[in-house]
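Posting this for the archive.
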Amino acid sequence: MEKPMFYIGSCYLWTLMVLSLTGMGMAVGLLVAVVPVCIFLIDRLRRPVQGKEKLKFFLAAGAVVLVACIAFLLQTMLVYRPALTHAGEAVDDTFLVTEVLNDSASGAHRCVVLVEHGDPVRRLRLSSDTYEPRVGDVFRGTLQTKVLGEQDPAVARYYKSRGLYLGAVSNGRIDADPLDETEARGDVTVPPVRLAWWTLRIRLTTLRESFTERIEEWLPPEEAGVLEGMLVGDKTDISPDTNTAFQRAGVLHLFAVSGFHVSLWTMLVYKILLHFGAGRKTASSGAVLFLFLFVALTGFPRSAVRAGIMLSVFFLSRMFVRSSEPLNALGVAVLVIVLPNPFYAGDTGVLLSYAATLGILSWYPSLSKTLREYLMERIPNYKLRKRVESPLDVLLVSFCSFVFTLPVMVLTFGNVSLVTLLSNLLVSTASSAAILLTGLGSLLAPVPGLSLLCPWCFLGAGVLARFMVSACTALAGFPLAYVSLSGRGFGLGLAGALLVTTAGFVLYGSLQERGLIRMTALLSVIVLLGSVLTETALNRNVTHVVFPDVEGSCAVVIHRHGAAIIGCGSDEYGSEQALKDLFQREGVTKVSALVVPRETKTESGAVKAVREAFEPEAYLPPETFAGPEEQVIDLWPEVTLHLYKQGKDYPAALLVAQGVRSLLLFRPTVRVEALPAEARSAAICYLRGKRSEGLKLPTSSYIIVSGESGEVDARVSKGRFRLYRR
C-alpha cells in the first residue's frame, strides 16, 4: 500500500473529528458496527479470494477507526468526566502561569495556570479583572472552578482540544511573583530541568515583548498592530475594522503564526545554510533547531506548534530517509499532534491546517508542472516567463489551499470569501516581505552600527502594511465578497453538484479519461457556485429577525445596511459568543444600533460585554426612553421598533420589518391586554424564559420561548416570512 502513514493519520484524524462533534454515543456505535466488519474481513482474507490488497486496506482502516474510538472513550471516561466532578470546588494551592490568552470582550484577563498538587485537575483557565498575567508568574491563592463551555458545545470543544476542562476565578486579590524569585526564596521547589525550561520560556517572552515595543516605537498604531500580528501573532492592537476587512478578504490567517510564517523563516534559514556549503543533513538539523527557537519565541501558539511538527517531520525525513514522501510526513505529523489528546481533532485550526497542507502537497506539484510546460510553449523568453510564473504560482498555492479548506469552512463557519484568491495574490507576497523586514528591523535595532538600517526596514514594512490594509478593505467592499453558505439554496446546490459528479462516474464509467473527469468537476463547480451566487443575490433584500439561543431576552435584526441588537440577554459570555457566531455566519460587519429597553442587574454584564465586543454606532439605554408611553425608533426604511411602557420601564416592543410584525416580551409579567391591537395580533411572539401561568398570550401564529426554542431565524421579505431553527 502506497503512502500508508498518510492513510492511517488521515483516517485517525477524521474519525476523531466526527466523534468530537457527536460524542460518546457515536463512538460506541462505531465500535459495535466496525468490529463485525473487521471480523468479516479477516475471515475473507483467510480464503483464496481476489482483491486481497483492497481487503487489507479496508481492514487497516477499520482497525484505525477502532483505535480512534477506544482512545476517545478512554479520554472521555478517564480524564474529562473525572475533571468535571471537581466543578464548583474551591482549589487552594500554588499556581504557575503557563500561557497568556486573549482578553475577553468584557476586559477580563485570561491565562492558563498549572496547579502544583492538582489531581486529577492539573490545568485551569483563570479569568481575572485585576490581575494581568505573565508567563512564569507564581502565586498562591484560592480559585473557584467552573465548567468551560457548559452552555455552548462549540466553546467546550475548543477548550477540550486544548486540554482545558475547567475555568477558574479568584476569590481575592492575586499577588504573583516571577518563578526565579519564588524559587530562590524557597517558597516553591522546582526540579532543575523544569526550572531551566521555564527560565527559557520567560526570556523568550521578554524578547518577544521587546520586538513588539520596537515595532510600536517606529510605526503608527494601525501598521504596528498589523505587523505585530503577522510577526509574533499578537492581535491585541489590531482594530476591529482591520480585522473584519482581513476576514472578509479571506486572509485572516496571516494574523496567526501558522504554517505560512513558520515555513517562510525556516525555509529561508535552510536555503542560507545550503548556500554556504552545508550538506542536506546539516542544513536540515539547523532548520529544525531554528524551528524550535522560532516557535518558542512566538509563545508556542498552537497554530505554530502544528506547523512546527509538520515541518520537523519533513526535515527529519530528509535527514534519515533517502526519498521521503511528503504525504507520509503529513500523516505522521497528524498522528504526533492528535495522539496525546484525542479531543485535539475537534479544533478547527487542526482541520484547516491539515486540509490546506493536503491540498498543496497533492495538487500543487502537478498543476505547477503543467503551468511551467504551458508557459514554456507560449513565452520563450526566460526572464519574462519567470515574471509571469511567480504570481501565477502564488495563485496556484492559494487555489489548492482554498479548494481543500472550503468543506471545512462550510461545515464550521457557514460562510466563505469569494475574493480570497485575488486577495492572496495581492497580500501574501507583500506580507512575506513585510514579515522579513519587520523581523530584520527588530533584530538590527540593538546592534551598534547595523541599527542605522533599522528605520529603512520599518519604513518598508510600514508601507507594505498600509498597502495590505487598503487592499483588503477595498476587496472586502466588493459585492458578494463574503457570502453565507448556511441557507437552503447552498444545500440544494451541493446536492446538485454531487448528482452531477455521480452522473459523470456512472455514465462515463472510466476514471482514466482526464477530459471527462475535468468536465464533471467543472460542471459541479458551476452548479455549486451558481447556487451560492443566486441565493446571495436573492437574499440581499431579505431582512432577518433572529432570536439567539441565550439566557434572557435578545433579538437581532440583520438588514443589508447592518444589524441592530434589541436586548442583550442575561448571560455575559453566552450572549457575546452567540452574537459573534451569528454575525460571522451571516457576514455582518457593522452593528448600527444597540437598543436596551430595560436593564436589570443580571443583564448589566451582558450589555457591557456586547458594547465592547461590537462597538455599535448608536447605543440606546433605558434612560433614553424616559417619558411617553410609546416610543418609535426607525432603524432603517421598512424596519421600525415600537416600545411600550408599563410601570417604570419598557418590557414590550413591536418590531415591524417589511410589513411583518413581531411582538417581543422582555418579562413574563407583561399585561398583553394593555398593548395596542396591532401588537396583540403580531405574526410572531417572542417570550423571555418560561411561559407564566398568568401570562395571556396574544393570538400570534408562532410562539418563540427563549431558552426552549433554540435559535430561530425569521427571514422576512415583502410582508411574508419563513422560520428557520438551528
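The CA atoms of residues 125 and 723 lie 38 Å apart. The chain has 21 helices and 21 strands.
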